[in-house]
């Protein structure tokens, strides 16, 4: 989702449903993308990454999809659990430098 | 267990005071980073370091200073020149600057003004 000012986009789902969190990135030269999960008062935790030569990568209960044509990244979480409640950030890295550019995040709330 | 340790968890600064945030890693990572996070915002890069005794400014370095005397340690000083220091500060590390490897984060230090 898009973030506006200080208000994070939010996604509320029922426990057991699948969640899809979206991210639009800015740099067409970015070659590496990461999803992080951040719980309240903690640092971001690595979830999954994908390189630009791929369009899909799967982990345990998570799948990342990359659409370079429209510069869009998504994170799918299967069978969402209350422990998945957190802020999720995408990050992109340009091909010629070190720097990670972070999105503003999406707040996922899982209702039991 | 390998990881990144940040201390203290909470820190208060008085007017005109410099404060130093600690970051230690035992992951044998080459590169280390400092980020600032404000409420409802993404992370902004303050400083980064590829190797010992070398570091570069990030996007918002003004009012901050760092040192990298040991591979494991990358302390951040928030100086009195930083007029809006209240934020959540995150330290991260990774194997190499240009490789496609994720950065791993500590659990942050929350800095507030007294």
Task: Provide an overview of this structure.
- The complex is a heterodimer of chains A (about 110) and B (about 110).
- Chain A is an all-beta fold and about 110 residues long.
- Helices cover about 0% and strands about 55% of the residues of chain A.
- Chain A is built from no helices and ten strands.
- Chain A has strands at about 10-15, 20-25, 30-40, 45-50, 55-60, 60-65, 70-75, 85-95, 100, 105-110.
- In chain A, strands 1, 3, 4, 8, 9 and 10 form a six-stranded mixed beta sheet that branches. Chain A has a four-stranded antiparallel beta sheet with strand order 2-7-6-5, with no helix packed on it.
- In chain A, strand 3 (about 30-40) and strand 4 (about 45-50) form a beta hairpin.
- Chain A is globular, with a radius of gyration of 14 Å.
- By secondary structure, chain B is an all-beta fold.
- Chain B is built from no helices and eleven strands.
- In chain B, the strands form two sheets. In chain B, strands 2, 4, 5, 6, 9, 10 and 11 form a seven-stranded mixed beta sheet that branches. In chain B, strands 1-3-8-7 form a four-stranded antiparallel beta sheet, with no helix packed on it.
- In chain B, strand 4 and strand 5 form a beta hairpin.
- Chain B is globular, with a radius of gyration of 13 Å.
- The interface between A and B is medium-sized, with 28 and 25 residues.
């Amino acid at each position: 989702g898009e973030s506006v000012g200080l208000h994070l986009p939010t996604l509320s789902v029922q426990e057991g449903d699948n969640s899809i969190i979206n991210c639009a990135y800015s740099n067409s030269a970015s070659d590496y993308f990461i999803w992080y999960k951040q719980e309240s008062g903690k640092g971001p935790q690595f979830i999954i990454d994908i390189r630009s030569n791929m369009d899909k990568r799967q982990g345990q209960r998570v799948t990342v999809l990359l659409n370079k044509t429209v510069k869009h990244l998504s994170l799918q979480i299967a069978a969402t659990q209350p422990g998945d409640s957190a802020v999720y950030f995408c990050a992109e890295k340009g091909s010629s430098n070190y720097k990670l550019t972070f999105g503003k995040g999406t707040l996922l709330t899982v209702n039991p | 267990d390998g990881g990144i340790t940040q201390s203290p968890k909470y820190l208060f600064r008085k007017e005109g005071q410099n404060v130093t945030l600690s970051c230690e890693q035992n992951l044998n990572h080459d590169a280390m980073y400092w980020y600032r996070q404000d409420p409802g915002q993404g992370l902004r890069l303050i400083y980064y370091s590829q190797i010992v005794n070398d570091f570069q400014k990030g996007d918002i370095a003004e009012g901050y200073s760092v040192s990298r005397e040991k591979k494991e340690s990358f302390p951040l000083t928030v100086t009195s020149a930083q007029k809006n220091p209240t934020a959540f500060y995150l330290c991260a590390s990774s194997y190499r600057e240009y490789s496609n490897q994720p950065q791993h984060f500590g659990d942050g230090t929350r800095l507030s003004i007294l």
